[in-house]
Amino acid sequence: MATNTLSYQIPHIIQPIQPTHLRLPSILQRIGDTPLLPLHHLAADLPPAVKVFVKAEWFNPGGSVKDRPALRMIEQAILRGDLRPGMTIIDATSGNTGIGYALVGAALGFPVTLVMPESVSEERKRIARAYGAEVILAPASKGVDGAIRFVHDRVARHPDRYYHPDQYNNPDNWLAHFHSTGPEIWRQTAGRITHFVTAIGTTGTFMGVGRYLKERNPDVQLISVEPVDAANSIEGVKHMATSIVPGIFDPGLKDDEVRVTKAQAVAMARRLAREEGLFVGFSAGAAVHSALQVARGLDEGVVVTVLADGGMKYVSVWE
Ligand SMILES: Cc1ncc(COP(=O)(O)O)c(C=O)c1O
């Protein structure tokens, strides 16, 4: 019988839920504990006392950082009794969270229905279907909002049949990072991190890692990364001023922010592949572009950023 090696320590700000974790199938125990890698060539022009590290999140079994919140949201829903045998996990997602749900649902024996705009890349639909998820395509003209409305209608009509994790408003999204990504970064830098830079979508990574690091050292600077405007869309990253702001987001946690263009994100993703051997997605390009910008302004420091996913899902749009 597999035992759960994830340790969910309950900090003082969290109300304990008993018990705090399930026994997980082995593949789900492999979520988290990703490598933290130094940048070499791309950081060569920085002062010697400034280091930049990247968290390689495509090492998660579903290929992205979103395996972490997908697992925690589903696990905690089971423990609360909100997700029961026979129910289906449903959500509107065009990306990595959907793949995370599909992976976790398959491993735990829950059917998964993902509602995506029909414009979503072929790779994403096929990966989700490969895990056995049902993919429902909503009209591209209605975008992700159309997919969200579809899910709300479906759940309202059949509340006992579906569990809707709702990652934008679910505290278990950021708590996944508070309990795993944050402590890993603290441990992997031996507490020497000075700046945490991350692209924001649902804001779960920023909020969870940020809150953890501030608890350990209030001087750690938290820097969010967004596109310069809505036209510069980068998969997984939100331009907050023109988006529905996630319920879990507290902008007051942010010490600073960096804005990037799509061209800068794409150019850096290409350089990461060719100059560092890191084949990653475009949000990772945006994150590293921003982390290097922050690092260039320092005389000394340890800057950490997150490479949310790998480049494999982007091959059809890479060239
Ligand atoms: C590729 C990619 N980058 C960045 C993010 C942002 O992470 P978060 O939702 O934790 O803010 C996501 C989230 O889905 C993503 O898929």
Write up what this structure looks like.
- There is one protein chain.
- By secondary structure, this protein is α/β, with parallel strands linked by helices.
- It folds into two domains: 26-59 and 172-317, Rossmann fold (3-Layer(aba) Sandwich), CATH 3.40.50; 67-163, Rossmann fold (3-Layer(aba) Sandwich).
- Helices cover 36% and strands 16% of the residues.
- It has helices at residues 26-29, 67-80, 96-108, 122-130, 143-157, 171-188, 204-216, 262-276, 282-296, and strands at residues 36-38, 50-56, 88-92, 112-117, 134-138, 162-163, 195-199, 221-227, 256-260, 301-307.
- It has a six-stranded mixed sheet with strand order 1-2-10-7-8-9. The chain has a four-stranded parallel sheet with strand order 5-4-3-6, sandwiched between helices.
- The longest helix is centred in the middle third of the chain and has 18 residues, at 171-188.
- The chain is globular and about 60 Å long.
- Mean pLDDT is 91; it is low at 1-17.
- It binds pyridoxal-5'-phosphate.
